[in-house]
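Retro notes
What went well: the complex prediction finally ran end to end.
Inputs used:
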Amino acid sequence: MTVKILAGKSERVAAETARLRLMIGGAMFAAAFLAISARLVDLAVFNQGATGPQLASRFVVDPAPMGRADIVDRNGVLLATNLEAASLFAKPHLIPDIAQAVEALLSVLPELDPIEVAAKLSSSSRFVWLKRGLTPDQLYQVNRLGIPGLEFETEQRRVYPNGALAAHVVGFSDIDNNGLAGIEQAANQNLTGETEALALSLDIRVQQILREEIAAQIETFGAIGGGGLVLDVHTGEVVAMVSLPDFDPNQPALTTEDQRFNRMSYGVYELGSVFKLFTLATALETGAATMDSQYDATHPIRIARFTINDYKPQARVLTFTEVLRHSSNIGAAKIAMDIGGPTQQQYLGDLGLLTRTDIELPERGAPLYPSEWRDINTMTIGFGHGIAVTPVHLAAAVATLVNGGDYHPPTIYRHEDAAPIPTRQVYSSATSIAMRGLMRMVVADGTGGKAEAPGYLVGGKTGTAEKNINGRYERGTLLTTFAAAFPITDPKYVVIAMLDEPHGIPESYGYATAGWTAAPVISRVISRMAPLLGILPADQFVPTTDQLVATPANIFGSYIVQQSAAN
Amino acid sequence: MSAFSRADNSVFGRWWWTVDRWTLVALAILIGIGIILIAAASPPVAARHNLADFYFVKRHLHLLPVALVSIFGISLMTPQQIKRCAVLVFGAVFVLLVLTLLIGSEINGAKRWIYIAGFSLQPSEFIKPLFAVVTAWALSEQIRDPKFPGVKIAAITLGMLLSIVILQPDLGQAFVLTAVWLVQFFLAGLSVYLVLGLVGAGVGGIVGAYFTMPHVTSRIDRFLDPSSGDTYQIRRSLEAFSNGGLAGRGPGEGQVKNVLPDAHSDFIFAVAGEELGMIVALGLVALFAFIVLRGFTRAMQDHNLFVMLATAGLFAQFGIQALINMASTLNMMPTKGMTLPFISYGGSSLLAMAMGLGMALALTRRRPGERSIS
């Protein structure tokens, strides 16, 4: 049996066999080691890892700090940028005397909580953050303590040099540079790892003017909040967007929800009489009315269980233009009925008022309107009740009225000259010119007189609405709005001012309506911003504003001349 | 080398002039690289175990003198002493191996460790070199005296060892034991048909393990089809070699040790590839190949069949372990928990390897005057 298994017959023969077979075995080992070597060369030289992503390039020891692009306004002014900041962490096991370390740390960083720091330093973990985003001075002070086990990591810190000024638009990001609001959130992907600054449509100078004036008016009328918008009527660019109260994006943790709430793009409101502009424009466009149409506003309209009344009842037959001049709800309701619900709905849809806007902010409010569009809804929506939209909706729709009838989706990004502007024709240019005249009339000779900015030919419309709180219209809690465009002969900008719950003051004779509260903001903002934007006062060239409006193309101009003469 | 005269007749002098100094030098370089790599690879591992950064380095440096003394002491022995001692110690370690199954501590689902007098030992590491000597003894004895049941002894011993090691379970050790045993049988003149038959049985054993042992199934599946499971470790390991390139990122500058749990042991070759680069890694391969082939050459030059078989078995064990470790790290075979001799951290592995190399050095010492067969 043995002989069968082992071929060797004697020890000497067996040794000879073993010698030969050792050579074979050695050759096999050599081949195996060569295969290992070949694989090594293959991996290190030729194969840069066929099996998925690489670790960082071998010349970079640490992964590069994650960059984030700056955000600038339309003129390149910094709105958000990065600063390198040191963050302090501890390796507790390396700290010789924890009690002493806590005491020393608190002497230079008194804002730290001693109990928390002591707990962190006593923990068994090998790495604890103590404070992120130290100033260079704090870094120096901590270094000077010379405590082993306290170390720093350089981090990119997001900084907003303009503070609260454009907080709602720019938004903010968290400590790990993830955008949490505004453009920081909306463009998070595009900002991450980019180096080229992201240019917004904002003009920070106009933003500053608007914010100052809205804030002053909130103060004057004791309002709980407010906001404003400036929109380029030809591009849809938002040149300024202010929502008050606002917040410092450098300290997002210290803000309240009310402060972070963007009333302009996110809040939806029943804006009231400014909607009459759309009713009148649609009536002219569809032929449901002409300038000569007349409406009986002698009696309130009673429909279903509602009564539609005028704020200052004229109790007579009103002309088409007088409906706007006196802001007659009864007249607007009747015009709306002449247009008809479906047509009204179609035009409001074309004006973008029934869907979310395209503005590139995460905070976009959806309009509220009745799912079933009955006659009563047609009437109330005709004068701006029973429909709630954001002020951004309003600005874009008013721009459509005055720019020749083209709807441009509102945008928060700077329009580059070569880029096409999305356009949707809603009204004819004839309707648009008529609306300019009507809006000019409201300011020159109607409820919007305080919006006049001498030389800049302001046109616009007031809107005073009782706020609907928990399903009830609260008498005395008002939302006042003024939607303006200027210069009305060839409008460049729409300006919106809104005040939330203003209260009457002696100077306004107790009134808190839009004509008293929101309109003056328009006047002051336009007077200050127009020179900055290179819009020359008209008076230098034209004797009277009325004559300027009375161009041959203005089918309605003669009316204004007539009225002015009558005054 | 001139420190000792050729005429020096002291124990050390005689040792120095008869031992294979080329293997000694290669071994010394290997141990030196091992220290550097453990110092580089183990601190992140220590940190993950909440140990002091240099815990593993210190332990390694404490054990190295013991290992060196073992190598030297064992290599002083004559082949006859090696034969006798190995058989005796084999018996003792075999008992420990059985005890491991009964009272061993379980780590990661395997019972491989036993605590004796405050030390944790892995008897399966020590059994490998001892078994190589026992097999050489049994086979050579049968050839010298055909009445001696050497083949039976070798076969039964392997069977017992395999059943214990598979029960642990530790398939890597079973593989090494079987492979070394096969090499020795092959050298002893096993007929070619039986060699092929036994290789076939070995393959059958692996296939059987694939179908009956779930963790083997999963490892082989992941090797054959990386998308079938978590191949995170092996991907990181391959990236390490690519990142290292020719010259490496420099000692201590690697990343792979931060993510691989066994960076200081099973995956230390990846750390070498990343930090020291392809050239040094090739040097390491060359060192292992040199030691194995040098050992085989010395075995060929000998005239004593026991010495030939034992030497070849010991160097084969050394070479197979190195090959398995490097091939696993390079994804040339499914991952096996196998240390890289003298490079990986691991007390039992280091001391067992020292014992094996000590015996191999003893057997390959020149024995002037001894002339083959009695």
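What we learned: Chain A touches chain B through 46 residues (CB under 8 Å).
What to try next: split runs per interface for comparison.
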